[in-house]
Helix-turn-helix domain-containing protein (Streptomyces alkaliterrae), 420 residues
Amino acid sequence: MADVGDERERFATHLRQLKDRSGRSYGALAKRLHMSTSTLHRYCHGAAVPTEYAPVERFARLCGATPEELVSLHRLWILADARRGEPSTPPPTPARDVSPADDDAPNHGSGPAHGSAPVRDSAPVRDSAPTEIPDVVSPPADAPAPAPPPVRRDRRRRRTWLAAALAVATLTALVPVYLTFGRTDPAAGEPRSAAPTGDNRPADDKPALLSVTTRSHVWQEGCDHRYLIRKAPDSVPPPPVEQDAPRWAARQRAVHGGTTRVEVTVQGTEAESVVLKGLYVRVVDRRPPLKWNAFNTGHGCGGALSPAVLAVDLDADRPRARPVDGLDLSGDTGEDGKRLPAPRFPFRVSDTEPQVLEVTAETARHDADWYLELVWSSKGRSGTLRIDDAGRPFRTSGAAGRPQYTHWPEEGGWIRQPAD
């Protein structure tokens, strides 16, 4: 089996081939993907492997990847990611264990990370802990027992290939699935995350024109977020990393505290453009704020970047998505920084031109249930897509005046912070 460097290089080579075929520069692609040019360059040259598959898939679709290429790319990412942190030449001692995420989290609380259509979870499930997958290949009874270190490496390799095979099978089943207009998911008993409304609803026999994926556990700078939890601090486990937040929040029945950041990726399913005309906010219910403890996932991890977003004030009488420019104070941007223009409608999307919308909704005075509506039109057809949290409204509760806790491992756990 190839070493870690070979697996990473194969993944990077596939990315470079897609990039070269697209005819676009690193800067142009990075701008569309809302990431830095240097980060994309590192991915395409094997200097780093993305921690999540979602940005890889967006990159591939932007470059015009076919369904078969998406399957191949996901297999290569799984192999490179499963051996993250291992040196190219294995040392005599086994690689360190990676703590697995829980797999049996109930589907409640603040909901999954990806309320999505066509797929409820836009990021394929990856093997975050290959060492926890049980062996499925047993050695012959008369085979001599190998030394412990080789056994561990051999098992790790079998588990890595097993994870890749499962991922390929899963992605193969998911790639052809797209939005179904005006239908109900019989398994869930609720409409899909992006469902049309109004009199201009397309007939069921017409193909869907849009694919929408949603992430509702987006943290500021990837490390800072606040959750309200109805538990004492000693009953709350340490905060997860961002990609594990949906499962962690569901297990704690947590609610977004004060702010919910939602990332919406919209892409056409055909070469012809679809016009995105506007994004609107619907508040389903408002209640008094929850009187729960507030737990912050990061301390002092804020950076010099304020991203451009569509801001929503859930306390307003008529909330609306308002474009707000961002500001970059990092690097060589000067004392006044660099303005990051906020997205402004209308947009055009196609099967090779996705659009990523960042929505930040805030409330101080309510416990609010809400969702978004995206208005679109194309080729004489038009409609409104509901964007929510896997069939449920998003939920955000004000956290002002609640006890605030931040996790400090060196201090032994959750430490209460002074009031603002």
